[in-house]
Design brief:
By secondary structure, the protein is an alpha/beta fold. It folds into five domains: 128 residues, Rossmann fold, CATH 3.40.50.2300; 101 residues, 2-Layer Sandwich (Beta-Lactamase); 66 residues; 159 residues, Heat Shock Protein 90 (2-Layer Sandwich), CATH 3.30.565.10; 117 residues, 3-Layer(aba) Sandwich (Rossmann fold). It has 20 helices and 22 strands. β1, α1 and β2 form a beta-alpha-beta unit. α10 runs antiparallel to α11. The longest helix is centred in the middle third of the chain and has 53 residues.
Length: 659
């Protein structure tokens, strides 16, 4: 019998694919594995040599399987047998494995699970070997030497660090080679300087660990702590010690096992981070839906306010008190319009037109404003390393930069320091796409805004994008800035990453999809308000809106027929399809939505020009409207200067810049 047999694994699996996968995983982990696809072949192997561990997974175990178990235990009465739950149906299993130890497991397709079973079995084997070592310490016979050889060979194949020391750990008697991999230090120095084992413990954890060692001189101890390797990397360790006693019950040795938990800790942290992002995303989606519904009703109200105010201005003398009062109403209405745009940005449904925008020019414009307003005690350092373009609303991008930078300024207001703005290309690949939630594979730009101000606690980080949440005093912050930023970035197909520590500052990264550089700019001058003589069917379920639309468009020279019921509007059109030159319809209506009505109208008359208007819609976008055959898609509220050019463009078969 050779020493290597005491670390060998017998792997039996009647599924060839699983056998190959599991054997490969065990080989990669450094184990000596003998794989058998049948019970018969396993019996042949067991007749030749003993095994330390057997992992048996067969569909229908029979008496031949029981014969294999008996043979394995006769060869090595300390063998650890791990078998699938199907063996529980065989009554003779327990009587057969009378000397060794056995456990059951459910069917598994995971090689990592199988490795875990094997590792646990090896640990159990090691415990039995230590017990044998304890009972044989007094005799130092040839049998003891063989047991020591088995133990030595075994611990070299266990993935954990293993050691034997005096009860107070003042001297180390044995340290497994795995120590050099985990601790990153040589085993040799430990035998002269046992304290080196604990000197590597992180300074913040040392007092805790040394206390646990002192308390565990008789009973052993358990502890989780960090170590610092020579390369300054940090590893998370879970350690446990247990006593070895002589015939008189005195503790003469202390055995220890340490497991590297770094990867498991990283996975746990990733799961916690992902869960936090999911909760945040769900919360933002729910609040965004509510905000969009409010915006829809508010836009209808604003349409009436702005429209009738314009009509009033056109009918009163210039420079009169009434004219000035109405102008103030109009100004306030436009302010409210911009407020609704912020709500829509937050709900990811902003209807503002996006166009190819070199993002570095937006940042440069924002920096001009920031340098004039941020105190001189704060240095602004920018590094714009790309001139890539994004498909975006420049005004909203400007708002993102201003909001993030003013928040950074507030965090450094008392102490002053450095505000860094960096813009760079960033390629999202299959390897890093999971690290930034919400991104797709492809070219992006990354805007980084970093300060070294007060930073944020974990509780503040959890709620930082919640609307109306603010850490500023009353009167200094509304709590809407970062919520709007979140909505704008999401609406542009991007994502946000935040890294902040209390007292160390904050770094916010904004990722946006990059597009090829634009070769032309479609924006143009609207000029004066165009007139017309065509006939228009105007459909909206709000009485106020249809009366306003009729009056506004009739002032421009058009003949208008209005309908507040989409089904009746469809019947009117069916009666005389050629009567109307254009249809303007709302999207959200009972009966038929604007989308459904447009489909029916185009089925009757495919070349019909249609303008679709909405205050807010979860299901309709400009791209979807265009694919449907609708010439223009407009967001309410609309003033006469917004609506008139679009109507004229559509009637003249000219592409609208808002379509």
């Amino acid at each position: 019998m050779t020493q290597s047999t005491w670390s060998r694994i017998l792997l039996v699996n009647d599924n060839p694919g699983k056998l190959e996968t599991f054997k490969s995983a065990m080989d990669d982990a450094g184990h000596d594995v003998v794989g058998c696809p049948t019970i018969g072949e396993a019996v042949t192997c067991a007749q030749r040599e003993p095994f330390a561990v057997a992992v048996i997974d067969v569909q229908c175990p029979d008496e031949t399987s029981v014969e294999l178990l008996g043979l394995l235990t006769r060869k090595n009465n300390k063998i650890q047998v791990v078998m699938n739950a199907a063996f529980q149906s065989l009554n003779s299993v327990k009587e057969t494995i009378h000397g060794g130890s056995f456990t059951y497991f459910e069917k598994t397709d995971s090689s990592s699970n199988v490795l875990n079973y094997a590792h646990r079995a090896f640990r159990a084997f090691a415990t039995h070997s230590i017990e044998e070592l304890q009972t044989g310490m007094a005799t130092r016979t040839a049998a003891l030497e063989e047991q020591q050889a088995r133990f030595q060979h075994l611990v070299e194949h266990v993935q954990e660090v293993f050691w034997i020391a005096l009860p107070d750990h003042s001297q180390l008697l044995y340290m497994s080679p795995r120590y050099e991999t985990v601790w990153g230090r040589s085993c040799v120095s430990l035998f002269d300087h046992a304290h080196h084992l604990w000197d590597a413990v992180h300074p913040q954890d040392q007092e805790y660990v040394l206390t646990r060692i002192a308390e565990g001189k008789v009973t052993g101890f358990q502890a989780e702590f960090r170590i610092i390797r020579p390369d300054q990397s940090v590893r998370f360790i879970r350690a446990q010690t247990f006593p070895i006693r002589n015939d008189f019950g005195e503790v003469v040795r202390m055995a220890g096992v340490a497991e590297d938990m770094t990867e498991q800790k990283r996975v746990q942290d990733t799961l916690v981070k992902t869960e936090r992002q999911f909760r945040q995303s769900s919360r933002m989606e729910a609040i965004g839906t509510l905000a969009g519904g409010i915006a829809h009703d508010f836009n209808n109200i604003l349409t009436a306010i702005l429209g009738y105010t314009e009509l009033g201005l056109a009918s009163v003398p210039k420079d009169s008190r009434t004219q000035r009062n109405l102008q103030e109403v109009l100004t306030a209405g436009h302010r409210a319009k911009h407020l609704v745009l912020q709500i829509l940005a937050f709900s990811r449904q902003s209807g503002q037109a996006k166009r190819p925008t070199p993002i570095h020019t937006v940042i440069q414009e924002a920096l001009k404003l920031l340098r004039a307003t941020i105190p001189s005690t704060i240095e602004i350092r920018d590094s714009l390393m790309t001139q890539a373009s994004v498909l975006a609303d420049p005004t909203q991008l400007h708002q993102v930069v201003i909001n993030l930078c003013t928040n950074a300024e507030y965090a450094m207001r008392e102490t002053g320091s450095l505000l860094e703005i960096t813009l760079a290309d960033f390629e999202v690949t299959e390897e890093n796409v999971r690290s930034v939630s919400g991104l797709r594979i492809g070219p992006h730009v990354r805007l980084t805004i970093q300060d070294n101000g007060t930073g944020m606690s974990s509780d503040v980080l959890e709620r930082m994008f919640d609307p109306f949440f603010t850490t500023k005093p009353i009167g200094e912050g509304s709590g809407m800035g970062l919520s709007v930023v979140h909505g704008i970035v999401a609406n542009h197909g991007g994502a946000l990453m935040v890294d902040s520590q209390r007292g160390k500052g904050t770094k916010i990264e904004v990722y946006l999809p990059a597009i090829p550089a634009p070769v032309w700019d479609g924006a143009g001058d609207q000029g004066t308000i165009p007139l017309g003589k065509e006939t228009i069917l105007f459909v909206d379920d709000e009485e106020t809106i249809v009366r306003l639309g009729k009056e506004l468009l009739e002032q421009l020279g058009y003949t208008i027929e209005v309908q507040t019921n989409s089904l009746e509007a469809l019947n009117v059109f069916r009666h005389d399809p050629q009567r109307f030159d254009l249809v303007i319809t709302d999207q959200t209506m009972p009966g038929l939505t604007g989308e459904a009505l447009s489909r029916e109208l185009l089925r009757i008359r495919p070349e019909l020009p249609i303008i679709l208007c909405t205050g807010f819609s979860h299901i309709m976008t400009a791209e979807k409207a265009k694919a449907l055959g609708i010439q223009a898609y407009l967001m309410k509220p609309l003033a006469i200067r917004d609506l008139a050019p679009i109507v004229r463009h559509v009637l003249d078969k000219t592409l609208s810049p808002l379509a």
